[in-house]
Amino acid sequence: MVGNQEVTPESGPGKGRRLEIEIISSGRELLIGKTVNTNAAWMASRLTWIGASVTRIVVVGDSVQEISGAIIETLARRPAALIITGGLGPTYDDMTVEALASALRVPNALNEEALRMVSEKYSAMGLPMAPQRIKMAYLPIGAEPIRNDVGTAPGVSAELMGTRIFCLPGVPREMKAMFESSVLPALSKRSGAVYGERTLLLERVPESTLASVIDEVRRLHPNVYFKSHPKGSEALPLIEMHLSAYAPDADSLSKALDSAEGELISAARQIGALVRRGCA
């Protein structure tokens, strides 16, 4: 339970059903182009390969109102999980924990376990517990800290109405370590699907010609996603075709991708394409 809100028991989505996950990345540096949002791309890839589906990635600035508003909007959609990165440190513009408390409508309070984690870190460095460091031990009431083995600021774990919420540091190496040790194992247990993909390289046929072929094949395979990536030009065409799918199990996944890939290869060759498997 978080505050006065009852939390539903943790359960999987059922075999074959994908976990829907949303990501909120906070930080003005992302909005002004100073920093590329590699955190979101890395997490999306890792989550996809456990059979989860990242349905939305949002970037917001260092503002309690903006972060809280994005959290509230996400919770209204009730995804299986929400992952927030950035804003957990000791400075004035680290506002994610305050924003989370605002969104959950609970106060922040000093968390004894989080305080112990932070104290141990600074004690090992021979540094005192200044107010800015104690700030990192405040969590929304009902939330739990996530151990940060690489940095100093603990992460945050909470749950509201069936949505698991994870707050992770924005520093990539800290985020990745915490994600691998705490977030991914928790979500993997709840995943009810498997994911797979295939890549084909098509030459000699421009994308505008291939478009009708893709439409015909994808109508026969509604559970497979077909995406064309032009690598050349209309005059010298080279197209990377990416086929991806989710399924209840590995056998069903292989059958779906095998069938879709085979029909696309056959149809593409009929219009003069040179087709080979692999990556550009």
TrEMBL record:
MoaB/Mog domain ranges (all copies): 22-190
Pfam families: MoCF_biosynth
Alphabetized InterPro entries for the sequence: CinA, MoaB/Mog-like_dom_sf, MoaB/Mog_dom
Record SUPFAM superfamilies: Molybdenum cofactor biosynthesis proteins
PANTHER family documented for this protein: NICOTINAMIDE-NUCLEOTIDE AMIDOHYDROLASE PNCC (PTHR13939), NMN AMIDOHYDROLASE-LIKE PROTEIN YFAY (PTHR13939:SF0)
Protein's name according to its UniProt entry: ADP-ribose pyrophosphatase of COG1058 family
Organism name: Methanosuratincola subterraneus
